[in-house]
């Protein structure tokens, strides 16, 4: 099955230090289908490249929220 590669930028609030950035990076990168993750503190966001056949934007969002951060609409 071919990769259906998409890139999504999720806004994230609640990250306050480099440890938060590493935590968000780690939980996102651990998801099957996530190809690359670039998280920044300022602005607070995660740019995620992923295979839409394996993981959904809703799952990416829920993963960040489960790690203790917020993804504003
Ligand atoms: Mo830094 Mo983030 O000590 O949850 S890791 S505030």
Helix content: 25-40%
* DSSP summary, beta strand count: 3
Which CATH first-tier class would you pick?
A: Alpha Beta
Number of domains: 1
Poorly predicted parts: none
| Rg from alpha-carbon coordinates | 11 Å
Write up this protein.
It is a single chain. The radius of gyration is 11 Å and the shape is elongated. The model has no long low-confidence stretch (mean pLDDT 96). Strands 1-3-2 form a three-stranded antiparallel sheet. The longest helix is centred in the N-terminal third of the chain and has 12 residues. It is of the alpha+beta class and 73 residues long. It contains two helices and three strands, in the order βαββα. The chain has a single domain, classed as 2-Layer Sandwich (Alpha-Beta Plaits). It starts with a strand and ends in a 7-residue tail after the last helix. Bound molecules: dioxo(di-mu-sulfide)dimolybdenum.
Please summarize what this structure is.
The protein has 73 residues and is of the alpha+beta class. A hairpin with a 4-residue loop joins strand 2 and strand 3.
Key features of this structure:
73 residues, alpha+beta, Alpha-Beta Plaits, 3-stranded antiparallel beta sheet, 2 helices, 30% helix, binds dioxo(di-mu-sulfide)dimolybdenum
What is the element layout, followed by pairings?
Elements: E1 5-11, H1 18-29, E2 34-40, E3 45-51, H2 57-66
Antiparallel strand pairs: 1-3, 2-3
The structure holds dioxo(di-mu-sulfide)dimolybdenum.
